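subagent[fold] <- orchestrator: predict structure for attached chain, return tokens only, no commentary.
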Amino acid sequence: MRIHDLAPLKNGRKKRKRIGRGPGSGHGKTSCRGHKGQKSRSGGSVRPGFEGGQMPLQRRLPKRGFTNVFKEHYSLINVIDLQRFEQGSNLDIQALKKAGLVKRLNDRVKLLANGEISHPLAIKVHKASRKAIEKIEAVGGKVKIV
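subagent[fold] -> orchestrator:
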């Protein structure tokens, strides 16, 4: 096979349907919308989930549970994540957000004990596990619950 033997597949390229371009196109006059009715009008279409007046599926199905609006969301930080900060640094929630450890703005912060730390530092968080506090205090650091 040579380069001059190559050709596009038969029926491989299909032209786009150009509607509203006159009677010769076969898609002129009503532009494939049919005659009259809601779907033939400009802006005329039914909303998502509309079933012609029949009770829609999302209203027929039973609803379960509720959303607790008072639920507090916590960003979890492990002891190993604090290894990147230099020795003796004072960390608060703002410093953790600046470092990218806390993503969402209004989240509370909880310190967990996964990993080890080799140098002391002071950290202020909303919650901390007992093991995490022990690990940080074992190297001479401090954990303050805000």
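orchestrator: received. Logging for downstream: Helices lie at 57-60, 93-98, 130-138. The chain has a mean pLDDT of 91.
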